[in-house]
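ingest -> fold -> write
write: protein_1
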Amino acid sequence: MKRLFLLLSLAWIFTTDSSAQDIYYEIKHKAEADVSAPSVNPLIKQFSRFKVEALNYMAIKMKEEMPDSTADLLDKEALSLNTFLTIYTNALVENSQQPGTHQVKVISAFMDASYANPLFNDSDKDLVLVFFKDGNSLTRFSLDTDWRRAVLAVQEALKKLK
């Protein structure tokens, strides 16, 4: 009986390890496909390009700064990044008929949530703020973001704007 339990436990562990980072890779592969597809809307390409860069940055920094972190953390951050961008897209659409000053406040709430919630506290600001500083980008967010905290922060900020 102990042997059966041990074998089942090992099988579960190996199954869990092989499926680790599924969410991260699914989001990344979808974004890469959108970037490379010629028929995809340019706005979707811009959002997807940001996703790819943010996910690549996150994976590299986690290996460097958090070598003991689990794939589960990478999955949770990737899912939160996706959620953040979905909330952002919905907010842009919902507020498209609002005055320009209100739209600026909404966009600023997202930028602030991204910037104010770093995951790695990376000192290379030229790298992490490349999208943030680009006035032509719709995804003006920091690459160094704890996306789980940023989602919570932006939800709170949006409540205050209503």
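write: protein_2
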Amino acid sequence: MKYLFTLLLTVLTLSASAQTEQPQAVPAPELEFALQLKVTLDGTFSINNTQHGRRTVIPITGGTFEGPNIKGTIISGGADYQLANADGRTELEAIYCIKTDDGVYIHVRNRGIICNTKDANGNPSFYFRCAPQFEAPADSKYAWLNNSLFLCAPTFSAGGFNGIVLNVWRVK
């Protein structure tokens, strides 16, 4: 019993000291531009009032992409699946494939959040960020896409382009 009491006291002491220690300063991760995708889209359709919210599907019809180490086209046939709730928050998951100019196919799964709400002060706030994941052949020169995390800042197209522009950075 004395051993159990001593062990419990030691654990509590270590736990208390761990809570008071300040974390070491860790430098923030850096971002490196990876590529820009110009994704063309078709008309959307929605399934309203599901048990999870409003489901919207946006067909992906093609487009192009280019970065310092990659260039090619977006394959038609994918889609952006969005689920919106009544609070102004939308979760999205776009699933599609791209083909590099030298003929390599790469699968893309891009998940993100769109929030069109108010900030802590009651002012309108818009947030739209994504985290694409790539599946490239492991024996290709694009295998680097498999081994990094990526962040995406989408922007809406202008000038007659019917789509969305995705600027993608690799987290270093």
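write: annotation protein_2
The chain has a mean pLDDT of 88.
DSSP finds one helix and ten strands in the chain.
pipeline exit 0
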